[in-house]
Amino acid sequence: MRLRYQVKDANGMPIGAATSQAGAVAVATVLRKIEYWHQGSISTFKIMCRDGKGFWHGVHWDGKTASCFALHETDERKARKNLLEQ
Asked: Cβ neighbours of residue 76 under 8 Å, at least 6 residues apart?
């Protein structure tokens, strides 16, 4: 399943324009909403997001907090391949 969200901070700016901590908080908010919609945990899902500069990041979600790690890719297919290899 592929879900696409444009995550923005409280000021309406894309997360790449915000600090990484504010970006992780914004991602966590979206992931909580997805878990509510999904009616179950998504902590085992492979999740990635794109910052405001076009770089893809992997997201580790433990059900409470989100942490992002760099995939060092701007191409979605290459980023997905890197994420699945981890």
From this structure: 50, 56
Confidence band for 3, pLDDT divided at 50, 70 and 90: low
Residue 63 structural domain: 15-85
Task: State how many domains the chain has.
Answer: 1
Asked if the structure places residue 4 within a domain, the reply is no
The DSSP bridge partners found for residue 8 are: 14
pTM: 0.70
Residue 1, burial from CB neighbour count under 10 angstroms (0-12, 13-18, 19+): exposed
Beta bridge partners of 50: 56
8 — pLDDT class (breaks 50, 70, 90) = very low
